């Protein structure tokens, strides 16, 4: 549930995201949040972020 609330996600924190291409397999990518792309306060599938390496996906875990 924490990954669905925007205020829990801050630039600089380490997270695991699921990339669009990995949604069916559930493979997670770990990295540090650079930008938060979701504007709404809550999103049922996870807040969309851009990592420092440029990867874009929805947060599945906050580390």
Radius of gyration: 10 Å
Share of helix among residues?
under 10%
Please report which band the strand proportion falls in: under 5%, 5-15%, 15-25%, 25-35%, 35-45% or over 45%: 35-45%
Q: What is the CA-CA span between the terminal residues?
A: 14 Å
The residue-averaged pLDDT reads 94
Which structural class do you get from the secondary structure elements?
mainly beta
Q: How many independent structural domains?
A: 1
Query: Based on CA inertia axes, which overall geometry fits?
Result: globular
Beta strand count: 4
Which regions have little confidence, pLDDT < 50, spanning 5+ residues? none
Per DSSP, the total helix count is 0
H-E order: EEEE
The main β sheet shows up as: 4 strands, antiparallel, barrel
Adjacency order of strands in the biggest sheet: 1-2-3-4
Topology record:
Elements: E1 14-19, E2 28-36, E3 48-51, E4 56-62
Describe the structure concisely for a colleague.
With 63 residues, the protein is mostly beta strands.
Written account of the structure:
- With 63 residues, this protein is mainly beta.
- It has one domain.
- The chain is 0% helix and 41% strand.
- It contains no helices and 4 strands.
- The chain has strands spanning 14-19, 28-36, 48-51, 56-62.
Key traits:
63 residues; mainly beta; four-stranded antiparallel β-barrel; 0% helix; 41% strand
């Amino acid at each position: 549930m924490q990954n669905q609330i925007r205020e829990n996600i801050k630039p600089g924190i380490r997270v695991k995201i699921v990339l669009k291409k990995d949604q069916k397999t559930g493979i997670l990518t770990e990295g540090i949040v650079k930008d938060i792309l979701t504007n709404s306060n809550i999103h049922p599938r996870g807040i969309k972020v851009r990592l420092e390496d440029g990867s874009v996906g929805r947060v599945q875990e906050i580390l």
